[in-house]
Amino acid sequence: MTQDELKTMVGQAALQYVVPGEIVGVGTGSTVNKFIAALAGMRDRIQGAVSSSNASTELLRAAGIPVFDCNNVGELAVYIDGADEIDGAGCMIKGGGAALTREKIVAAQARRFVCIADESKRVPVLGRFPLPVEVIPMAAERIRRQFAAGVGGTRGEATLRLKDGVPLVTDNGQHILDVRGLQIADPLAFESEVNQWPGVVTVGVFAHQRAQVCLLGTAAGVETLKFDPRNGS
Ligand code: 5RP
After folding, report:
1. Ligand 1 atom 10: the closest Cα is on which residue?
2. Are residues 103 and 177 in the same domain?
3. What's the CATH number where 149 sits?
4. Mind listing the pLDDT tens digit for each residue in 68-108?
5. How many domains are contained in the chain?
6. 103 belongs to the catalytic site
């Protein structure tokens, strides 16, 4: 099975977590795009979606699914999104698609985070994937130095993400640093610490907003991982 087929499989499997009559939280990325395609088939049975990026909003609207502003809706039953890495407790690295800030906002508004991913995303310790951090541009160089000096017993090399040779600008008008070489042994503590550095908008560790369920696409089918909500690291 190709990676694309695995993504299609988990995108379709996620429909079982969508609550009819409600508004669903929708993430961003190539796996979520498969979910949006599947969701189009049940658009008449949901009120609509809250979206985590301009890209997903465009796809949802093209599929005939109404998109609501976070501020105009209450708690969501479920948020469905992909991940760049997921560990054994449901903690994730996210932001490969630069949508981490809005992803975290929508995830925080949902009772349950269902992660959809192919099996290559499963890791024992977060950090092999370069950690995305959305930053206010004027703070980027100092934050780069802070990662080089070390945080939570690990250090990393941060580089500014470029697009077409210039700094990528997020949906929020900010920049992304990608941090290589980290080994994030305590994701909750790491997320809390980096979050309070001046100029950090969002760190791409999702430990406070970790997944409760992961639908993992494997050659043998969809494996459902359920995480203990009391276990955060
Ligand atoms: C976007 C994300 C994505 O969920 C993550 O990058 C996984 O993407 P894909 O499904 O394309 O592998 O965090 O900001």
Report:
1. 31
2. no
3. 3.30.70.260
4. 999 999 999 999 999 999 999 999 999 999 999 999 999 99
5. 2
6. yes
